[in-house]
Design goal:
The chain is α/β, with parallel strands linked by helices. It is built from 14 helices and 12 strands. α2 packs parallel to α12, α6 crosses α7 and α12 crosses α13. It starts with 29 loop residues before the first helix and ends with a helix. InterPro entries: BCAA_transport (IPR051010), Leu-bd (IPR028081), Peripla_BP_I (IPR028082).
C-alpha cells in the first residue's frame, strides 16, 4: 500500500498530431504502435547468461488454471527456462519489506514449477533473478540493466516510486517489459509515455478514490456525518501522492479538507496533533509508515484527543504487529488499502504457505500484491508461448487474469498500462485484527458502527 521516498517526475514525450495512430489524449497507443510496424522477432532465450539465480523454496503447490496462449511462437525450440528479474531493496532501511516482496515472487515461481512449468513452452522452468536496489534510484537503474544483461525476459518491482522511475526508464530503453508490483505514484504511468511498463497495483488516484467511496459507504451504515477532514502524511513521494489523490477524490463530495500536516522520518507528531485539535475535523486520514503511525497515535493519546473517525488511507503502519504497540485505542478504527481475499481458499493456502516457508508474518497487502503480480507475469509467459519481449508486451496488452489471490476484480491493463480494475477495500480493526468490511463481496465481517468513534 505504500512505497519509498522522493521521486523526479518525467514528462510525456511529444507525439506528432499527424500520426494517425494517436489517441485523443495525444499518446500513441501500444496496439497502434505495434500495428504501425513493430514485429515480434519470436526469438526465444535458451537460458540465462551470467550470474546465479535465487533458489526457490520447497512446499506443496496450489493449482491454477492455464489458458490457451493468445500469442504464440511459430518455433518449437522452446527455452529450458524463462527468467523474471526481481528488483527490490534487499539491504538497507527498507530491506525487511523488500525481502518479503522478493520472497513472494520466488514462491509464485515455485508454485508454477511444481505444476509443471510453462505448459505452452513444454514445461519451461520459471527462474527468478534477484536485484538489490538498496532504495537508491541510481542503483535501481543500474541493477535493472544488469538483470537484463543476465537474461531477464521480464521484470518486476520495486517498492519505491523513485527507484521504479529509474528502473522502468532502463527497461523501456532496452525494450523489456516491466510489471510494477509496488509503487503508488500515479505519475509513474500517467505522466510518462511508456510502451513496456505496466502496473498491477492500484495507483494513488484509485486508492484515494476507493478510500473516499468506502468511507462514505461505511459512514452511511454507521450513521456518521463526515463533513470535515484532516490529512496527515509522511513527507515522501508516497505520502505526497496519496495526499494529492485524496484532495482530488474529495473534490465534488460533501467533505472539505480543513487541515493538512506532514511528518518526516524521525519526527514527532505533537505539533501536528495540536493543529488537528484546533481544526477539529470529523475525520483524520493518516498515510504514513509504521514509525510515523506510532508517533501519531502516541501524540493523540498524550493530548487526550481522538477524532470521530480515524481512517488510514494506504498506510503502511496498519497491521497486526503495530496494533499491539498502539494498544486498544486503535480498535474500531478504519483503514483502506488493497488486500488479499481471505474469503477464498486459494488465498488462505498461499498465505499459510508463505508464513511457513519463510517463517514470517502473513502476506496481506503489499506482499500479496507482489505475489499476484508475479502470477500475472507467469501467465503472460503461458499465454505468449514465448520469452521474446515483444511477444510478452503484446500479450500483456490483452491479458486478463481472473484467478488471483487479491480482493480485486480480474486484472487487465489499460492503454497506459494501469490495472483496469483496481480496488482498495475498507477494513475495520476488530479485536486488534484488520477485517474487510467493504465492499460486501470481499467482506470478512460486518462493520461495527459503535466501535468507530469509541475513542
Amino acid at each position: 500500500m505504500s512505497d519509498g521516498d522522493s521521486k523526479q517526475t518525467e514528462g510525456a514525450q511529444a507525439v506528432s498530431d499527424s500520426d494517425a495512430s494517436t489517441r485523443p489524449d495525444g499518446r500513441r497507443s501500444r496496439r497502434a504502435f505495434l500495428a504501425a510496424g513493430a514485429t515480434a522477432s519470436l526469438v526465444t532465450f535458451a537460458g540465462c547468461a551470467g550470474g546465479e539465480g535465487t533458489e526457490t523454496p520447497a512446499g506443496d503447490g496450489t493449482g491454477t488454471a492455464t489458458r490457451t496462449p493468445t500469442v504464440t511462437s511459430t518455433s518449437t525450440d522452446y527455452p529450458d527456462e524463462v527468467v523474471i528479474g526481481s528488483v527490490h531493496p534487499l539491504t538497507g532501511s527498507t530491506s525487511y519489506v523488500g525481502n518479503r516482496l522478493h520472497n513472494a515472487v520466488r514462491m509464485a515461481a515455485t508454485v508454477k514449477n511444481e505444476e509443471g512449468g510453462i505448459q505452452s513452452m513444454d514445461g519451461a522452468e520459471v527462474k527468478v533473478l534477484q536485484g538489490d536496489h538498496k532504495n537508491d534510484p541510481a542503483v535501481g537503474g543500474e541493477v535493472t540493466g544488469e538483470l537484463i544483461d543476465r537474461g531477464a525476459d521480464i521484470l518486476t518491482g520495486t517498492y519505491s516510486s523513485p527507484v521504479t522511475n529509474a528502473a522502468t526508464r532502463v527497461a523501456e530503453s532496452e525494450g523489456v517489459p516491466f510489471v510494477i508490483d509496488i509503487s503508488v505514484a500515479a505519475s509513474l504511468l500517467q505522466e510518462r509515455d511508456l510502451e513496456y511498463v505496466y502496473r498491477a497495483q492500484p495507483n494513488s488516484w484509485s486508492q484515494s478514490a476507493d478510500h473516499v467511496e468506502g468511507l462514505t459507504a461505511v459512514a452511511d451504515r454507521a450513521g456518521l456525518d463526515i463533513e470535515t477532514v484532516g490529512l496527515f502524511y509522511v513527507d515522501t513521494t508516497y505520502g505526497q501522492a496519496i495526499r494529492d489523490g485524496l484532495e482530488r477524490a474529495i473534490e465534488g463530495t460533501n467533505m472539505e479538507v480543513v487541515e493538512t500536516a506532514s511528518i518526516g522520518f524521525g519526527g514527532t507528531a505533537d505539533s501536528q496533533v495540536t493543529r488537528f485539535r484546533q481544526a477539529d475535523p470529523d475525520a483524520i486520514f493518516p498515510t504514513v509508515f509504521t514509525n510515523q503511525m506510532l508517533e501519531l497515535v502516541k501524540a493523540m493519546q498524550d493530548q487526550n484527543y481522538w477524532p470521530d473517525v480515524f481512517a488510514a488511507c494506504a498506510s503502511g503502519g496498519m497491521y497486526t504487529e503495530n496494533f499491539q504497540k498502539m494498544g486498544d485505542v486503535i480498535d474500531g478504527a478504519l483503514s483502506s488499502g488493497y488486500q488479499i481475499d481471505l474469503t477464498q481458499e486459494k488465498a488462505q493456502r498461499i498465505n499459510e504457505r508463505y508464513m511457513q516457508t519463510f517463517d514470517t508474518p502473513a502476506m496481506k497487502g503489499n506482499i500479496g500484491m507482489a505475489y499476484t503480480t508475479a502470477e500475472v507475469v507467469i501467465e503472460a509467459f503461458e499465454q505468449a508461448g514465448s520469452a521474446d519481449p515483444e511477444v510478452l508486451r503484446r500479450t500483456l496488452d490483452d491479458i486478463t487474469v481472473d484467478e488471483h489471490i487479491m480482493a480485486m476484480p480480474p486484472i487487465s491493463f489499460t492503454e497506459r498500462g494501469e490495472n483496469a480494475n483496481p480496488l482498495s477495500v475498507m477494513n475495520q480493526i476488530q479485536d486488534m485484527e484488520a477485517q474487510v468490511v467493504y465492499p460486501e463481496e470481499y467482506a470478512t465481517v460486518e462493520v461495527q458502527p459503535e466501535l468507530i468513534g469509541q475513542n
